[in-house]
Amino acid sequence: MGSPPPSHPAARLPASRLAGVGLVVFAANAALLVLQLVAGKLLAPFVGSSLETWTAVIGVFLTGIALGNGYGGRLADRYPTPRALALLLAGGAVAALWMVAFPRLLDATGWHRALPLGPRIPVLAFALCLPAGLVLSLLTPLAIKLALPDVRHAGRVAGMVFALGTLGCLLGNYLTGFYLIPAFTIDGIVYAAAATLGVLAAGTALIAECGFRNAESERNSEPEAPGVSIPNSEIRIPQSPDLRRWCVVVFLASFAGMTLELTASRLLAQVLGVSLYTWTGIFGVMLAGTAAGNFLGGVVADRAGRRPRGPDGTPVGRGPLAGSLLLAAAAATATLLTFSAFTRFGAFYDYGLVGQILGWTFALFFAPMLLLGTVSPQVIRLAVPDVAHAGRVAGRIYGWSTAGAIAGTFAAGYVLLSTAGTFRTLLGVALVLVAASFLVLPRIWENNTLLYLFSVTLGLVGGGLILTARGNMRANPDGSGGVIAVRDTNYYTIMISHDPDHPGALRLNLDHLIHSSVDPRRPTYLHYEHEWVQIELLREARTRTPAPRVLVVGGGGYTFPRCARILMPETSVDVVEIDPGVTQAAYDFLGLDPALGIRPHHMDGRQYVAERAGPGTFDLVMTDAVNDFSVPSHLLTVEYNDAVKRTLAPGGAYLLTVIDSIGEGKLWKAAVHTLRKSFPHVELLASTAGWTPGDRQVYVIYASDRPFDPAAVARAADAAWAAARDPVAAPLAAALGGPALGGNPTTYTHLMAADDLAPYLNADPPVILTDQYAPVDNLMANLFRLSRKKEPAK
After folding, report:
1. Which sign does the torsion angle of CA 499, 502, 505, 509 carry?
2. First vs last Cα of the chain: how many Å apart?
3. In b/e form, how buried is each residue of 237-264, taking b as 16+ CB within 10 angstroms?
4. Does residue 538 carry a pLDDT above 90?
5. Comparing C-alpha atoms, which of 578, 687, 703, 723 is closest to residue 636?
6. pLDDT single digits (tens) 101-128
7. Under 8 Å CB-to-CB from 742, ≥6 apart: which residues?
8. Separation between Cα atoms, residue 355 and residue 287, nearest integer Å
9. Strand pairing category for 493-498 and 750-751
């Protein structure tokens, strides 16, 4: 594609029109991300909140975006008018309202229960999310077509539109996480998104009747110039194989970008844990880097397009594009090496928690995402032959880019991270980008600069392979040595190591969290005292039911289930653990004996309780699914509590584990107020008699239709310890291994006095957690900021 003769002035870039369509794209993408973030919460009551749920939601939205951009390109070339833009915005508002109506339809009919959980997740995700993702994505190619006056502005216009769309996503990310979810119900948020799109549609339709018509008439009255319509002799319509090459390039670049984003969450979880703050930091940096890259890529593309060939004969624009891909590959590999160095030398350790998250995310991921963001505008500049084909070509390019993101999402979420591991996945991203650079310039060795970048990148990949082979790049969250095994699963980086504080015991780390301490030689060893509270409540239940039935939601190290089965073998124990890799690690390394008869179920706890557990099945239900500072919000709502209540036998009890502070925390108060909507008797229990309002520790919330009887719990505990000291029961005494072995009988269950708690419970208006309103991360935010002063009790 040659440059136009200098005698013809290029069409001016229409700032007002670009601002108008930019505003539309910005707002539409903000609404799109808001809807994507709340979609998982809308689906959680019907399919749970598992990796499969979130992967399906992201995958379906990306599918809608890919299809929308593909068909949107054809629509843009056929109907390049603001009226079409207004109709698409109105359609987006209707699609948003469908996201409110669909869950109500499921509630009313219950037809989803006829589908097994596996296929149910994608079916419901497609039905809920595809309309909004598809309709709102039809806008982008049309916006590019409306804003593009001249093919030589294709890179800049495409880059600007992409950048504004990404900034809209960035706004939607922060707005939803920090303001909308804690302030409004889920339906209210969706209504607000629909109203925003409706108002924008009305405004666009109004503008279409005046300003744009005049601007279009003025444009049509200008004499033909190469900037507006390039003569046929100078137009080179890309041949099909060439356009296909560009589609493959953006596919690979987006595959790498999405894989990098998912890998970032697993990488940072090893040093920062999993929380609202880490996810917000990752999304924010990824979107900010992509937006900056889109803008920069547009500028680079248009400047490169003014030169017929580079000084070494490189075809127009291909040298910078190949350089962007190689630099992105080098940056992705450097991320791996930087992570190893930062963990070794304690980078950002003296920063506050938010400062640590921003430091880690920007240092590791901003550069590669910025470089990847430059790819799409450069490819569009190379692929668009004239304004008449701008919409279709831009739509096709962006559609294949989104298809790459879909492939990256599913590949990383289901295969790469759990099989290849976090670090090798990063190296794979670098190799994919190197391959993409060869598609741009097959004879890359003829360019000295690109050959140098290629050599540096391969050197970094080789260094990364050496380090991963030697096992030197794995972060050790507790700073201790003696690592026995490390496994990456779809949910966690699982680390088994020797416990330096307890000889003979092993630690189970799930990402940043020391989840369990297990002594394989003493299967009744309980490191965390709140588990003795649970054992004592099980003992009390056994005084009323000879063979208690227990359901534990959250397996971890399986310490409570194995202790319960050994001390009270007549007890039946079912465990719901969402990650089968955690259960397998307990069998392989932590001494969990299959002969104990513990029944594991690998699925979301909400779905097991709601659909698999029969009414009146269990005497004790325990939700102990606390993961660092992230608590599954759908396991704390009124609807979940009602489902638990249906599974309890008469007189049965529900035990909810929370980590919080009486004085500073808000989560425990919301949990108590919410449980009182389902159970007549709700009490807060602790493993110590004394407490300080500002201390953060593990509490067990008791909920039942039967009043809590501390005297009965104490009698059952005393009887157990007396039997353990009896010479006849000496083997049991040796097995107990509890903290009080050899001392006086001890009761670990302490009832927190209602009068002492009342000032804290009544200090603020009660928060009732429902499927529509469950801002759990926000309730924990203040405690999370103070967490680095004191490590969590679990």
Report:
1. negative
2. 63
3. ebeeeebebbbebbbbbbbbbbbbbbbb
4. yes
5. 703
6. 999 999 999 899 899 888 999 999 999 9
7. none
8. 18
9. unpaired
Q: What is the DSSP letter of 224?
A: P
Phi, psi of 578 (to 5 degrees): -70, -25
pLDDT, average across residues 776-785:
72
Residue 20: pLDDT band by 50, 70, 90 thresholds? Answer: confident
Rounded to whole angstroms, the Cα distance separating 600 from 603 reads: 9
Report the interhelical angle of 82-109 vs 186-208 (nearest 10°).
160
pLDDT tens digit sequence for 349-361: 777 667 788 888 8
Residues 41, 617: Cα–Cα separation, whole Å: 28
Give the whole-angstrom CA distance, residue 102 versus residue 157: 37
To which residue do tokens 């601002």 refer?
19
CB burial readout 60-83, b (16+ within 10 A) else e? bbbbbbbbbbbbbbebbbeebbbe
Residue count of the chain: 794
Are 567 and 526 contacting, i.e. CB atoms less than 8 angstroms apart? no
Distance CA 556, CA 563 (A): 14
Residue type, 638: V
Pairwise pLDDT comparison (363 vs 402), residue with the higher score: 363
Tokens of 395: 């739509």
Residue 529 corresponds to which tokens in the numbers above? 């005292």
DSSP letters for 90-120: HHHHHHHHHHHHHHHHHHHH-GGGGS-HHHH
Q: In the sheet that 750-751 helps form, which strands lie side by side, from edge to edge?
A: 599-601, 572-576, 549-553, 618-623, 648-661, 696-704, 681-686, 750-751
How buried is residue 664: exposed, middle or buried, by Cβ count under 10 Å (0-12/13-18/19+)? middle
Q: What is the pLDDT of residue 548?
A: 97
Whose structure tokens read 């002063």?
789
The strand pairing partners of 494, in sequence order, are 487, 510
Helix (H, G, I), strand (E, B) or coil at 486: strand
Question: How far is the C-alpha of 335 from the C-alpha of 791, rounded, in Å?
Answer: 28
